[in-house]
Design a protein that fits this description.
Helix content: 40-55%
Strand order of the largest sheet: 1-3-2
Structural class: alpha+beta
Order of helices and strands: HEHEEH
Shape: elongated
Number of strands: 3
């Protein structure tokens, strides 16, 4: 789980669609930790199954984690 990625998401405009596999995986980990509201979807493109992530918002726990990380820096 990456607090830096959480911070990056917080600076963007939601909802945000993520297409890069590494970013989608980080989003999934943040969602599992309860830090973001997000979902993933699967689509077939040119015979390949691709996973996309949709970031909706930081959760209250995500905002606390981000604030805590900024106080420690």
């Amino acid at each position: 789980m990456s607090i830096a990625f959480l911070a990056q998401l917080s600076r963007g405009q939601a909802p945000l669609t993520l297409t890069q596999p590494r970013e989608v995986q980080q989003l999934v980990m943040l969602r599992a930790a309860g830090l973001v509201a997000a979902f993933t979807l699967h689509a077939t493109e040119r015979g390949q199954i691709r996973e996309y992530g949709r970031f909706l918002a930081l959760t209250p726990a995500g905002r606390v984690a981000l604030a805590d990380s900024q106080h420690q820096a």
